[in-house]
Amino acid sequence: MCSIISSKLSNSIKNYFSIINQFAKYSSKKRYYSHGLKVAILGANGKIGQNVAMMLKQSSSVKEIALYDITNTEGLCMELNYIDTNTRVCSYTGHKTLKDALNHSNIVVIVAGLARRDGMTRFDLFDHNAEIISEFSSCSATVCPKAMLAIATNPVNSLVPVANEIYSKINKSNTGENIFGVTTLDGIRANTFVAEMLSEKPEKVFSPVIGGHSNNTIVPILSQTKPTSKFSTSEIVRLTKAIQEAGDEVLKAKATGSATLSAAYAVTKFTIALANGLAGQKGVVESAYVSSSVIPNVSYLSTLLELGPQGIQKNLGLPQMSDYECCLLETAIPYLKRDIILGEQYVEKEFKQTGKNKLF
């Protein structure tokens, strides 16, 4: 009798897992489309991409996640679909599936590309990563031109101009209001360091950061920290240096790679903010590096933005700054201009060499 029960139980377990595996495989098929907000993650198999996918799977703001990479995403997709939330995950692998992954997307998150290693600057990555951003931007500008495009691939200061220039060549009416460089990581680092100095909970602190996303363009605005705080000159200098060089410190400590977990958290935080803005939620404010006219002759800048259904609802511009912070921003401007020109010239060069049909 026991052997009969054991046999039946064994068969039941096998049938159970067979059903579960069939469900996961079905969920990974490209034919599935949800009726809610869809986020496409390009570079999903990377360390940042995997963690972003897992966090978004837990968000009620997202109904479908499209995982895209040049390496097989089906296993990752299957594993994520085991998580018992209402968000469905679909798998797309290889260049030929990029358009399918982007189809019907509301938000496109780019985390693909080479990551920094110890001794490298963000700009050592430009040539390789600019090619990736070119491919993704040209495809998204064609397949889902109104989707929010969130670029977290470095160097952000130059790759956002690459994307925006490509969008403008494909869509003459492009305003750049839906193209963002994700600089949220600088903000959460600032909040954490300031909270530690003030002996506050990090989630209770807001310390804005403007400028760009490289050591010499990150401009912490400590004078506008909430709760209102007065720091000594030495504390301001120490905090500013810590915020600007946090990425380098992670590289040194890890030795084998750059920030991934905190970067993924920052990308997820910004993506959910975009989703809330798309849903019409009021008062959604985040920093991002975008096409800007806030400073004359500086065509891209990271500032606080109010997000809405069309992307940038309102650029909140420059906050009130101390003399020290004004000097930091003035020092950053030549670097920002250099970085922007690098991206813009790359697109012009590629456009002339390959022609529109091949590049786009």
UniProtKB/TrEMBL annotation:
Family, similarity comment: Belongs to the LDH/MDH superfamily. MDH type 1 family.
Assigned EC number: 1.1.1.37
Boundaries of every Lactate/malate dehydrogenase C-terminal domain copy: 183-344
Domain Lactate/malate dehydrogenase N-terminal as annotated: residue spans: 38-174
Description of how the protein assembles with itself and partners: Homodimer.
Stored InterPro entries: L-lactate/malate_DH, Lactate/malate_DH_C, Lactate/malate_DH_N, Lactate_DH/Glyco_Ohase_4_C, Malate_DH_AS, Malate_DH_type1, NAD(P)-bd_dom_sf
Residues the entry annotates as binding substrate: 116, 122, 154, 189
Broadest EC class assigned to this enzyme: oxidoreductase
Organism of derivation: Clastoptera arizonana (Arizona spittle bug)
Gene Ontology CC terms: mitochondrion
This protein's name: Malate dehydrogenase
An annotated Gene Ontology molecular function: L-malate dehydrogenase (NAD+) activity
Biological process (GO), any one: tricarboxylic acid cycle
Oxidoreductase in keyword set: yes
Catalytic reaction equation(s): (S)-malate + NAD(+) = oxaloacetate + NADH + H(+)
